[in-house]
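re: that chain from earlier
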Amino acid sequence: MVVKRKISILLALIFSVAIFGGCSKISSAKTLKDKKVINIGIAQIIEHPALDLAKKGFVDRLAEKGFKDGENIKIDFQNAQGDMATIQTITQNFVAQRSDIIYAIATPSVQAAFNATKKIPIVMTAITDPVESGVVKSLDKSGTNVAGTSDKISIEENFKLIKEILPGKKTIGILYNTSEKNSEIQVREAEEKAKEFGFKIIKKGITNVNDIHQSLASILNQIDIMFIPTDNTVASSMPFISNECNKKNIPIIGSEKAHVEGGALATSGIDYYKLGKESADVAIEIINGKNPKDMKVKFMKETKLSINPEVAKKLNIKIPQDIEDKAEKIKGGKK
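^ sequence. v structure.
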């Protein structure tokens, strides 16, 4: 009798777990959709214009779609100021506070969030290669709790741009943070593509923003052009980098519009404000019940050609008319 009673209790427990456990999975999406206030934690690795725009586009798009901070959503924005340990703490705190969604801006933020939770939906953005970074299983179907947008740029398009506006220039310098997976991927691709274009790459790795001054000085006398990848640490120091390069008459080709606003000559890059909006659309799909693991990684379909006529004049560079006609012109950091 005792054995039978124990078996009955065990079966009842298993049945209850099956019923209520299954229901919890079904209701989680409904709970998120029907919640009066949805808690969204935003984790940003560092402050610089491109990532700031990715945040602004995200928040603006949510508001456009009826999700307004202080009303039906509550946004907790945290910036790690470039510190890898801090971004881990930020994402761990979001998990402890039971955020409903984490919006992770840039590769280090996404990786930190993914390390912190495999349950809370993570909307990623400004990440170059989410598969190689280990946060999704494939581009066609995430397979994890991470979904969102990639800021992968076309190295080839920027190298074509160099050929068109800087003919005869052969030696390209690249400054990048060795701790950022996104930068490592871009540098590797640049080295591969350089062979096709007849370019020579001189790369210089840094570990934090304090290394930039010395590392930049060590390569300026060896290069014709500086190429800036979508590196968060380097991007945060664009005004300094552009000033030093301009002193040596070395043009900079950037990877995003914000680089041109910061003093680069030109770029064929993406619009991070639009990228943020695309990311918000992903968040809204998740709020409405879509599972991140079933979602594709989204990419920007078009690049934006931007030039800085003031920099061109300063460096005595003539921009071909066809490029000038179709490019967005940046003056003094603005259109």
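Residues 155-269+303-329 form a domain with the Rossmann fold fold (CATH 3.40.50.2300).
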